[in-house]
Amino acid sequence: xxxxxxxxxxxxxxxxxxxxxxxxxxxxxxxxxxxxxxxxxxxxxxxxxxxxxxxxxxxxxxxxxxxxxxxxxxxxxxxxxxxxxxxxxxxxxxxxxxxxxxxxxxxxxxxxxxxxxxxxxxxxxxxxxxxxxxxxxxxxxxxxxxxxxxxxxxxxxxxxxxxxxxxxxxxxxxxxxxxxxxxxxxxxxxxxxxxxxxxxxxxxxxxxxxxxxxxxxxxxxxxxxxxxxxxxxxxxxxxxxxxxxxxxxxxxxxxxxxxxxxxxxxxxxxxxxxxxxxxxxxxxxxxxxxxxxxxxxxxxxxxxxxx
Length: 307
Known about the structure:
Blueprint: H1 11-14, H2 22-33, H3 37-46, H4 53-61, H5 69-82, H6 88-94, H7 113-116, E1 130-141, E2 147-158, E3 163-171, E4 182-187, E5 189-196, E6 202-213, E7 218-226, E8 235-240, E9 244-253, E10 261-267, E11 275-280, E12 287-295, E13 298-305
Parallel strand pairs: 1-9
Antiparallel strand pairs: 1-2, 2-7, 3-6, 4-7, 5-6, 8-13, 9-12, 10-11, 10-13
Helix pairs in contact: 5-6
């Protein structure tokens, strides 16, 4: 299983349509080889190549692509481990890995690739140590039409002993300056490490719990993000990394700047086509909300149109 022997010829990777996606090819090769990401990382480590689990996951899901020389070297080692033709995956990376799709603008919330690389900076970055029971988000849009404040409440259950934190990823508008974003722990948590991206509009940060959880113990905590550089906003989307029992998203608007229309939308994945799922009517308190239950993955959000 270490990738020895002759590489297997796979036309959809090696010589097939030039529009083949890098992440699709990588995911299919991993599935065909029957390796878990942990075992794949182990084989790479034995070859002297260190790649984080979150990076491997994001590469195969299309959330980020290897771009640094070290990452490209890792791709070539991946080819050997997975038994595919030399340069088959690396060529997809070099050409953008997207073919004609690269000329089609993707939804803004899909532009997350640089930020996902920050996850390797933090321990337990994939939040696999907790079960997410409930998520509530409230986005506040000010009189300048900017979504400057995000309040969040999460209810989680520890799946092992020793859980003491949760990691948040934030992807702002193109105008976002990550170093100016303020993160606060409000209830039952405090801010841990805060890692803004040096060039992309995003960041990751830790929320540290008041005490260490035992397996099966639940914890509810509240936090806030304030982004004074948000700029004019037209949506808020939430990507599910963990199955979630209940999700509530609210958008509240300043009465001096009310949108013409509000609607809910969904995507199966960040790279997939967006579908409008229904119009939302503003309440007397100038807010709309979206409620969903038993979500396994994908993206849910609220969008709005200005006059």
